[in-house]
Amino acid sequence: MAKNKNLIYIAVSIIVFIVLAFLYSTPVFTGKQLFQHDIVQYRGGAKELIDYRADTGKETYWSDSMFGGMPTYQMGSRFTGDIIKNIDSKLNFLPRPVNYIFMLFAGFFLLGMVAVRNWKYALLGATFFGLSTYFYIAIAAGHNGKINTIEYFAPLLAGILLVYIRRQYIWGFIVTTLFMGLQIAANHPQMTYYLFLALGFLFLSELIRAIQKKIPMKHFLISSGIIAASCLIGVGMNSQRIMANSEYVKETVRGKQILTNDSHTEGNSGMDKESMLMWSYGKLETLNLFIPRLMGGGSQEPEGKEMMTRVQELVQENVSSQAEMDRISKGFGSLTYWGDQPGTSGPAYQGAIVCFLALLGFFFAWKKYRYWILGATILTIFLAWGSNFMALSDFFIDFVPLYNKFRAPSSILVVVELLFPLIAIIGLYRFFKDNELAEEYKQKILLYVGGGTLGFVLILLIFGKSLLGFHTENEKTYLPPFLLDYLVEERFKLFRIDAIKAFIYVAIAASVLFLVLKQKLNQNIALLIIGVVSLFDLWTVNKRYLNDDNYVDKIFAENPFQTESSDLMAEKVQGNPNLEPILANVNVNKTLETIAEKDKTHYRIFNNILGTFSETNTSYFKSSIGGYHAVKLRRYDDVINEYFQIMDSVKVPNILNLLNAKYLVLGGPEQPQAIPNPKANGNAWFVSDLKFVESPNQEIKSIGVIDSKKTAVIASSDKKYFEGKPVQPDSSAYINLTNYQPNELEFKSQSKTPQLAVFSEIYYPHGWKFFIDEKEVPYIKADYLLRAVHVPAGNHDIRMVFEPEVIKKGKWISLICFGLFILLSGAGMYFLYRKRGKREVAGV
């Protein structure tokens, strides 16, 4: 009876999560969709991939849409036999973002049920976790892969705890394997990596407990073996994805450096430290886990508009010289954010009540949870400081495997956002339910922590201006007193409102706990009050960053690259900052569309209006010189940094010719101009002059000054390629593209002499195969980043095709691992069924 009643409560909790998720996302009822910046960029960059899939029913693992061409592994490619990803799709069946919110709630509910085995506390913890502000900021930005990964944090940890803590080996194996597989399928390795840094503390905690004989060493070894097997199988179910990305990442900005210069050395792996640590949390900024506007909110808060109006008035009233204006402009950054990061979309707010209960949890929770959660919390906070704690960051970058592959250390706070709700509900459960904790101890800790927390907030309210400053060093250096004083006062007002709220929320929670302790209040009523107040707190803060303004009509969400404007569109766009770029870019999009419709051959466009390397409008209509992607191929990124950071009027055109930029889009958004580039090299050309160089630095320097139609720059290490392959000039020789698909290109050539054919296609050493008259031949890299192949004299059919072996191998490993998971899970369930049957027979 009790079991059935518990199932009813669980079902009701699931319904509550669905209702809350829909209530937060009410515009979905009217058919509106989220407008997310990164998803807009994805739609442009992945257009060729999506079109190819729709036209052929097949998948291409290479696309020419961005950066001259790159693998699609990080662009939404699908893998055949990818069963685990299909399961992920089924779990995320609700409309976006309802699906993410619901899964965040439901996943933590499972963790709560494992940790405390009480649906009330699990439900409360689910709202603590599922309403963490950072998640809503990420959803608004379009970081769907990140949120998709985070939604499996809690259930994965639940599976591990089932094994280590609950000793339910079979169920633990099933849950751990399933959610490990789902987490990897969500395809955000950085988030998974950060989670496992924290889980390392759980492993050490269990090892120490075994050494201290608090748990049997046999149990620890069996549990660790089960978890290791679960993780391996979960990873194995994603073999295609992992193997392809592992192969790809070596050739990207996350892989080894190729060049040697001031910022990095050839052969070093990962990104340079400056790029890695650019988004580092300030030490004091960490307190915005507790007070959201401690350092302001996002860089673009609504209050900033009113502040800017007043700033302009003050400048007009007080500034009389251009020199002073220039000085002021140097000091200006964001009006509504004054932390250490270059900018931010909002704070990683965890909730005042959640932070308060987490502090209590470190005193009340069982020791088997307390110490590893504390250790993981401290480490991740320190790592989030990044450049503000270089001793630790340097150690991890230099000595901890894979850490230097990831940027934006501030995002590691997702671990805290998982662990604080967990320790909070465990501590709260013990406070209410565990008689081992003496009432005097509870009262003392509640007094100290509650009083200390409230006192801390009061100190900030009274002495905040001197303690927090409310300005940046840059502002202090360049802004005159009349502006600095105004900013400090307005920012303090923003902070004060949130600080007072935090004081009230913590006071309510502490009072409720005290009343329960004195038996003046029912525990269930106390949980309800804490839940409602915390829900109100997090909900209202989250609505600053993800609200109805983030939803737009379906036509804008699915086709943000409009080519026609109208009064109706202008009416819909008016006042919505998310949609304003759509209207502003209509003329540019129309120009791109016109180019693509008039010239359907294969070429690239250089768009210098929208920000070449931060837009995918161009990619939506045609292959682009630029694009928007965090994991570009290293060689292409090197060329961008070498030539496009400083627009040399001679060298840049040479690079554009090399990359077959047949059209340049110049001018402004209102009157864009499409300018044909007759000097573009075309899709392929023959060269007979080879310039051998000794280093990658010489290679990249040479391509900006040579006549690339006549000369190819070749690394000296490829000299042996030309043994027995002479290259001789023939002015009548030609090579033409006859068929183009993103993963297969066909050419016809004619030459009286042997030639080196250079292709305006990006060199990638894995998966591309060259065939001359259907006989596979080796190829080399030329001009630092292009493909080249030796072509004998005569008439020839040349074909290059992208057939990565890693996809084929990975598919079978994935299927075998999923089959192993089903087999072992089935055997485990059968064992449990038999065991249960024996107990029933025995009358147990």
Automatic annotation (TrEMBL):
This is Membrane protein YfhO. PANTHER family: INTEGRAL MEMBRANE PROTEIN, INTEGRAL MEMBRANE PROTEIN-RELATED. InterPro entries: Uncharacterised_YfhO. Keywords: Membrane, Transmembrane, Transmembrane helix. The keyword 4Fe-4S does not apply. The chain crosses the membrane at residues 7-25, 98-116, 121-141, 147-164, 169-186, 192-208, 220-237, 348-366, 371-392, 412-432, 444-463, 499-517, 524-541, 812-833.
